[in-house]
Amino acid sequence: MLRLILALSFVLLAPAAQAQTRTSSHCIAIADAAPGLEYLHKVSFRDPVSAHAVRIRYIAHASFLIQTPAGVNAVTDFTGNIGNTTLIPDIVTMNHAHGTHWTANPDPAIPHVLRGWGEEFGEGVDHYLEYRDMAVRNVPTDIRSGAGGSEPFGNSIFVFEVEGLCIGHLGHLHHEPNPAQYAALGRLDVVMAAVDGGYTVDQPTMIRILKKLKSSVVIPMHWFGDTTLQRFIDGMRDEFDIVRSGESNLTVSLRDLPARPTVHVLMPRYLRDTD
Cα(267)–Cα(219) distance, rounded to whole angstroms? Predict the structure, then answer.
């Protein structure tokens, strides 16, 4: 009888196992900050990334270079211009709310180009890419369109999973995520957030989003000047430490996330092969 029960269990469970084509996300479980410690040091983007760590370089506007120990180079909100460099990213993500967040003609040498919108208006898109030691997925969001309209699922929040870290790029966010979108995001240890307060969500809304996400590290982007940036920092400092190192890159690992949630300001700097 025991053999029969075990055999039936195998038959019932086999289809579910065969249908599982994606590696289970370690981010979609507990949307809470991980315990932590320290992290920063200055390096060239051409240097190898330490084991169990991720290097994040602020390029410009909403573009970041995310690099992994296996040598993966991913660029967010790719515009076609990352600087005076021969580097060809392995993965680029794009959003089309504004022309400063995408390009219609990405270099055909880029292996993986992930657009945050669907081919048909309002259709949205579902990305899941596993490449070496990085997984990239998206959570579609709505955006404002011309004449006061909107485009459902017109942009995406992209999540990069690598070395146990969950890294979110909120893109050109136009509204607070709904409960289903928060759940789909899961835990975000590091998050890049637009804090301009006008072209994207207003600053009080963005601050509310970030305090709800409880990410260990928040990297402001899309800030258009120090006055706007400082206003955002002032709204965060009651619950977050503030670090302004003056550097453009940050190296972080799961084991050395800060003990208290931290806003880490990076200075934008285009890539140069001479760096």
Answer: 10
Q: Who contacts 134 (Cβ-Cβ below 8 Å, separation ≥6)?
A: 66, 68, 70, 72, 74, 91, 160, 161, 162
Total Cβ atoms within 10 A of residue 111: 12
Query: What's the DSSP call for residue 67?
Result: E
* Structure-block tokens of residue 55: 């290097």
Residue 65, Ramachandran bin (φ over 0: left; ψ between -120 and 50: alpha; else beta): beta
**CA 246, CA 144: separation in Å to the nearest integer?**
34
Gap between the Cα atoms of 214 and 242, Å rounded: 15
d(CA 207, CA 254): 24
* pLDDT (tens digit per residue) in 203-219: 999 999 999 999 999 99
Q: Among 41-50, 248-257, 266-275, which is the least confidently predicted range?
A: 41-50
The two beta strands, 150-162 and 165-169, are antiparallel
Could you tell me if 209 and 201 are in contact, meaning their C-beta atoms sit under 8 angstroms apart?
Answer: yes
Q: Tokens 């880029």 belong to which residue?
A: 110
**β-strand partners of 193:** 220
This prediction has a pTM of: 0.86
Q: What is the pLDDT of residues 215-231, one digit of tens each?
A: 999 999 999 999 999 99
